């Protein structure tokens, strides 16, 4: 079950491999990072991502879904992993509001352009 796998990865502080490498990441100015927030933590593969890529001087825009955790401390965690990358205000969409979040997402994207 996915929930069990996620919990195990968190407990082991796993660093899952990324299947496909982003060859042209230098061409991007803004990196949008979307993820589910599991028990106040981002998926462990994102640790792999931030450890594998240098996002210095790229703007990071976080968005996540969660039951009730919001962005939790994931913004602070990513700032530690990418200290030279500015971060815009992240977007949290609760699982209950996800089907009606279109206007919130559009507003957030327009704010960070």
Briefly say what this structure is:
The chain is an alpha/beta fold and 113 residues long. It contains four helices and three strands.
What does the model show?
By secondary structure, the protein is an alpha/beta fold. It has four helices and three strands; from the N terminus they run αβαβαβα. The chain has a three-stranded parallel sheet with strand order 1-2-3, covered by helices on one side. It is globular, with a radius of gyration of 14 Å. The chain starts with a helix and ends with a helix.
What class do helices, strands and sheet pairing give? alpha/beta
The level of helicity is: 25-40%
Mean pLDDT across all amino acids: 92
**Strand content range:** 15-25%
**Number of helices in the DSSP assignment:** 4
Strand order, largest beta sheet: 1-2-3
Q: What is the strand tally?
A: 3
State the distance separating the first and last CA atoms: 38 Å
The topology string of helices and strands comes to HEHEHEH
Low-pLDDT parts are none
Sum up the overall morphology in one term. globular
Q: Return Rg in Å.
A: 14 Å
What order do the helices and strands come in, and which of them pair?
Layout: H1 2-12, E1 30-36, H2 44-52, E2 59-66, H3 74-81, E3 91-94, H4 102-112
Task: Note the main attributes of this structure.
113 residues, alpha/beta, 4 helices, globular
């Amino acid at each position: 079950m996915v929930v069990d796998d996620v919990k195990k990865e968190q407990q082991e502080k796993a660093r899952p491999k990324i299947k496909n490498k982003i060859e042209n990441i230098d061409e991007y100015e803004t990196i949008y990072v979307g993820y589910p927030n599991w028990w106040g933590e981002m998926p462990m593969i994102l640790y792999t991502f931030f450890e594998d890529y240098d996002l210095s001087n790229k703007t990071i825009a976080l968005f996540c879904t969660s039951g009730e955790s919001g962005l939790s401390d994931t913004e602070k965690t990513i700032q530690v992993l990418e200290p030279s990358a500015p971060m815009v205000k992240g977007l949290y969409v609760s699982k209950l509001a996800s089907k009606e979040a279109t206007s919130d997402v559009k507003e957030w994207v327009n704010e960070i352009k």
